[in-house]
Automatic annotation (TrEMBL):
<dbReference type="GO" id="GO:0016740">
    <property type="term" value="F:transferase activity"/>
</dbReference>
<keyword id="KW-0378">Hydrolase</keyword>
<dbReference type="GO" id="GO:0016787">
    <property type="term" value="F:hydrolase activity"/>
</dbReference>
<dbReference type="InterPro" id="IPR036866">
    <property type="entry name" value="RibonucZ/Hydroxyglut_hydro"/>
</dbReference>
<dbReference type="InterPro" id="IPR041712">
    <property type="entry name" value="DHPS-like_MBL-fold"/>
</dbReference>
<dbReference type="InterPro" id="IPR001279">
    <property type="entry name" value="Metallo-B-lactamas"/>
</dbReference>
<protein>
    <submittedName>
        <fullName>Metal-dependent hydrolase/oxidoreductase, beta-lactamase family protein</fullName>
    </submittedName>
</protein>
<dbReference type="Pfam" id="PF12706">
    <property type="entry name" value="Lactamase_B_2"/>
</dbReference>
<dbReference type="InterPro" id="IPR052926">
    <property type="entry name" value="Metallo-beta-lactamase_dom"/>
</dbReference>
<feature type="domain" description="Metallo-beta-lactamase">
    <location>
        <begin position="19"/>
        <end position="191"/>
    </location>
</feature>
Length: 220
């Protein structure tokens, strides 16, 4: 399995970039998690990475903030009829974009080997994706807290620990990063994690730290 970072706040050479978050996951199934602010950025960066945004099995949205859903109209246009697993809301728009509405109301298995935490605090979900031997947790902005999201994903999937937690940690303070580090082998702070959180993980947990920027490809 691999995770391709289509856009992150940190730019990558040769890629377009803005404030947003989107990853393409290629494993048992092929799907996009969050869609940045602009379809053009996703399209350009996927071409540079040599992957197609067509032929996706489904799409997942962590929460209804523009830096995560802005590129979804393009994803729907390229993949008509696939489900969009998103927290409740905007059903009419989701259909207009070309998706089948996959409203996520509680924790559970979305597709084979892909679990959701369900919307925590009523509005943001994280997912767990099974690799052949481990579980990878992907988060959006972690407004409800990355620790709680990770615990919810571990609980629903039956895993005791994550292999990797990747995504936006929303300016997580040191104490919370310490608690998160106990839940996972590797940590990839991205998007809205903040430079302080990245520097802290890099310094305190160098054996766990995974650097992420636009265009990163993480092989698992
Ligand atoms: Fe965000």
């Amino acid at each position: 399995m691999r995770i391709l970072v289509l856009n992150d706040n940190t730019p990558g050479k040769g890629f377009l970039n803005d404030w947003g978050w989107s990853v393409l996951v290629e494993g048992k199934n092929r799907f996009i998690f969050d869609a940045d602010t602009k379809g053009e950025i996703l399209l350009h960066n996927s071409r540079v990475l040599g992957v197609s945004l067509k032929g996706l099995d489904f799409a997942v949205l962590s929460h209804w903030h523009y830096d995560h859903y802005g590129g979804l109209p393009l994803v729907g246009e390229l993949n008509p009829g696939i489900p969009l697993y998103a927290p409740p809301g905007n059903g009419t728009m989701v259909r207009q974009w070309g998706f089948r509405v996959g409203e996520v109301r509680k924790a559970g298995e979305l597709e084979a080997g892909v679990w959701t935490s369900g919307p925590l605090n009523g509005f943001e979900q994280a997912i767990g994706v099974e690799t052949p031997s481990a579980l990878v947790v992907i988060v959006g902005c972690s407004h409800p807290g990355v620790e709680g999201l990770t615990r919810a994903v571990l609980e629903v999937s039956g895993y005791g620990k994550a292999h990797l937690v990747i995504g936006g940690f929303h300016y997580l303070p040191a104490g919370a990063l310490d608690r998160l580090s106990e839940l996972t082998e590797f940590i990839a702070p991205a998007h809205c994690s903040g430079e302080d959180a990245k520097a802290y993980v890099r310094r305190k947990y160098p054996e766990k730290f995974v650097e992420v920027r636009t265009g990163s490809v993480i092989e698992l």
